[in-house]
Amino acid sequence: YSxxxxxxxxxxxxxxxxxxxxxxxxRYSRExxxxxxxxxxxxxxxxxxxxxxxxxxxxxxxxxxxxxxxxVLQEKxxxxxxAAAAFARFLRPMLAFEPARRATAAQ
Length: 107
Fold this sequence. Notes:
Blueprint: H1 3-15, H2 20-23, H3 29-32, E1 33-34, E2 48-49, E3 57-58, E4 63-64, H4 69-75, H5 81-91
Antiparallel strand pairs: 1-3, 2-4
GO molecular function, one term: ATP binding
InterPro entries: SRPK
GO biological process, one term: spliceosomal complex assembly
């Protein structure tokens, strides 16, 4: 798989599954996402399989290991739990996959 698909996988591990209409709506979606919703073998322990109905599934990377934004701030960057949770709540609206749901600069 490509470096771009790997990057998309990391974003999905951090922020969750991409809604199908967003994942399949882009000019290059066929390069990265499987339109048929085919799944591979069962997920590894602690992994999530990207074949949920209504979600975009990566073409070559089948199993992701979710590591949410708050957890990354706490575990990787050693932020205190409260500060990590507050900052994650602040960032999440700006990182929404759907442009209509994404926070604007004015907000």
